[in-house]
């Protein structure tokens, strides 16, 4: 049974936390100076534990085990949402380092832009499985400020570097540890979650085209208020989605932008970022049909035409049965009675890596369920426990 | 009958249009370098036509007639909304200059920040009538970027300058010419509007306090989505306001901000800028009562508390009967059969100046009703015609 050096693991995590520190969290948007500093720091850690470090043309940092196989791949992402938590993806990457330090035959990878600062998102995991084309890179822009991805890569010093691909047959499976980002574990007093599957996110942009006008001179009958059409569609979604969703579906409006956004101007256009998630494709398709019908109805009733464009359409991933068995056995050994099986409501790099090899995930509890916010946190004893569960499971699975 | 030099009037307007030019309009936010340049340019024009120019501590530019009275005050504002039209307030200011050039005994004033780039709005006209305190100035911040008004005044070189007050008894009345900002004139083929009264704007900020969370990890039942509570309140306003509004009431949501505004984050807070307008105080009060009831209902039903704060509460202004008579007679003389009486749906400096002296307004048509947008425009022959109507009316009123 490989024993994880929990103290060293926590020390590594806390050292990484200093890069881009923001209050008790971090601010490391993809390809920002802070993000690139964390990638260079990680390469030093990978070299330190005997792996061969490299960084590729999309920013993936990879530590390759030099000894004989069978190998496992362990990792997650190292960039953060804006002003967000210190664990999130960093936890999965540093768990890989901890397993390597414990002598397990693992390659460790930090995939770039899981957080989707750039259109498309999951750039690193999509790239390493061969599902990110040069055209995709040419088209993608920052969701924060519109900067082209190519420019961001050049500014980060990555232009022209080759993009690495997974070596077929090298890995027996991929493990990703992550915070739960919810309160299912905490509310039941549990400390470990064995993930059964990962929801897919279908992300949409809804644009409304109105007429910018003075808010006093234009009568209610004359105006074409793009913001009002947006509010009516969102209210209709709120009324209808519960009729077609699944038990664990979620749907979220993350942004509403009225242009120009001033008190005395009727908005000339409006943009809405809307997404829904589920583990079941039929349920996702049912929600899509409802969304399309509501947009069609909006276009029948409203003066401001609505245009629906899909920004992402991932496939839900089901975790590998043998790897889940290894995780469950390890959880029962290390944390008897305080673990459970659960789906992941969030998207993760594992959903792309699962297209090339068996994959599984382990969740740590999230204090108060807070995520994508600088106050995100997990008890240190839970971090250490889950890292040990993953190490034990990795050994079990390698031996199976 | 004083004849206006229409060619010179249009040349002045087009010269001013070059300062802060944006496409076919202008971008001159209050106290910006472009705005201050236009104020200095105006002072040169005022001196040119024999007036004594000055600028005061709130940015009001004043041209004082040197001869004997009775005097009129003529003017409007010179700053613009962001990326907005070339006429709007500039038209009223340059009409004052045209009347001065024609030898009429007028003082000309460009009041600062009618557009409300800073909280409170109408800084110049409120200041000159003694209704803007030093405390008001201390508290006000930019609605665009949060900059304190004091800092903006200092950056514009206005810190420490005294603020001028209207000289009691000096003026027989105040005339303001403005674009209609609607399609009432254009749609009826009319060229001149004699304004009967000015609506009051009651501006509100509605803040919703939720819990920022991950859009996948947090179930629909657990989440406190501030954006969703905002959408539901706005949908309720859309359902209820038509039951209590007046015939010419307007209500507008100019901005909806979800924080942090990212695709995969449940908004932790939301802010809505909402306003309504009417010429009747009882109708304004009815709309206020409905808004307050809907916010109370939102707080009964929703998990995200809503807080309502009033950002402005103006009083509607009724135009002076004798001045309206002079305008009507001049309109019938210069534009027989193509003028009408009409209320103003927009707020104007005249509503504050009307607290200290008789005041009246004249509207020019707006092409397509477009306003607060760079495409705003009025036919040159209509501009010239209305300027002549105002000159004729001014002489009639002075002689009455």
Automatic annotation (TrEMBL), chains A, B:
Lineage top rank: taxon: Bacteria
Keywords tagged on the record: Hydrolase, Manganese, Metal-binding
Keyword Hydrolase: yes
GO molecular function (one): hydrolase activity
Cofactor: Mn(2+)
TM region(s), chain numbering: none
InterPro entries per the UniProt record, alphabetical: Amidase_Cbmase (IPR010158), Bact_exopeptidase_dim_dom (IPR036264), Peptidase_M20 (IPR002933), Peptidase_M20_dimer (IPR011650)
Domain Peptidase M20 dimerisation: 201-299
Keyword Endoplasmic reticulum: no
Pfam families listed in its UniProt record: M20_dimer, Peptidase_M20
UniProt record similarity statement: Belongs to the peptidase M20 family.
Quaternary data: Homodimer.
Identification of the protein by name: Zn-dependent hydrolase
Organism: Neoroseomonas terrae
Native organism taxonomy: Bacteria, Pseudomonadati, Pseudomonadota, Alphaproteobacteria, Acetobacterales
């Amino acid at each position: 049974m490989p024993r994880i050096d929990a103290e060293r693991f926590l020390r590594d995590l806390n050292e990484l936390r200093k890069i881009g520190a923001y209050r008790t969290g971090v601010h490391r948007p993809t390809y920002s100076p802070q993000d690139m500093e964390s990638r260079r720091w990680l390469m030093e850690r990978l070299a330190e534990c005997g792996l061969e470090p490299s960084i590729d043309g999309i920013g993936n940092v990879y530590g390759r085990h030099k000894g004989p196989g069978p190998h496992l791949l362990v990792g997650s992402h190292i960039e953060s949402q804006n002003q967000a938590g210190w664990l999130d993806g960093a936890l999965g990457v540093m768990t890989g380092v901890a397993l390597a330090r414990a002598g397990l035959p693992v390659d460790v990878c930090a995939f770039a832009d899981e957080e989707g600062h750039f259109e498309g998102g999951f750039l690193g995991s999509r790239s390493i499985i061969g599902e990110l084309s040069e055209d995709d890179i040419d088209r993608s822009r920052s969701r924060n400020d519109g900067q082209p991805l190519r420019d961001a890569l050049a500014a980060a010093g990555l232009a022209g570097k080759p993009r690495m691909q997974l070596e077929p047959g090298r890995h027996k499976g991929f493990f990703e540890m992550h915070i739960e980002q919810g309160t299912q574990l905490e509310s039941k007093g549990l400390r470990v979650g064995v993930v059964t599957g990962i929801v897919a996110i279908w992300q949409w942009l809804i644009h409304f085209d109105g007429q910018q006008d003075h808010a006093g001179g234009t009568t209610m009958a004359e105006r074409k208020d793009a913001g009002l059409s947006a509010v009516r569609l969102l209210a209709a979604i709120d009324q209808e989605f519960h009729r077609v969703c699944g038990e664990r579906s979620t749907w979220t409006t993350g942004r509403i932008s009225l242009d120009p956004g001033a008190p005395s101007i009727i908005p000339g256009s409006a943009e809405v970022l809307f997404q829904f998630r589920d583990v079941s494709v039929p349920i996702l398709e049912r929600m899509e049909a409802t969304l399309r019908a509501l947009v069609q109805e909006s276009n029948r009733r409203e003066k401001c035409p609505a245009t629906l464009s899909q920004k992402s359409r991932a496939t839900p991933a089901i975790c590998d049965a043998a790897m889940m068995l290894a995780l469950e056995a390890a959880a029962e050994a290390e944390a008897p009675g305080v673990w459970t099986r659960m789906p992941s409501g969030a998207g993760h790099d594992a959903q792309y890596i699962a297209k090339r090899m068996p994959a599984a995930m382990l969740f740590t509890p999230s204090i108060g369920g807070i995520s994508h916010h600088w106050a995100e946190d997990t008890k240190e004893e839970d971090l250490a426990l889950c890292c040990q569960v993953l190490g034990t499971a990795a050994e079990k699975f390698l031996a199976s």
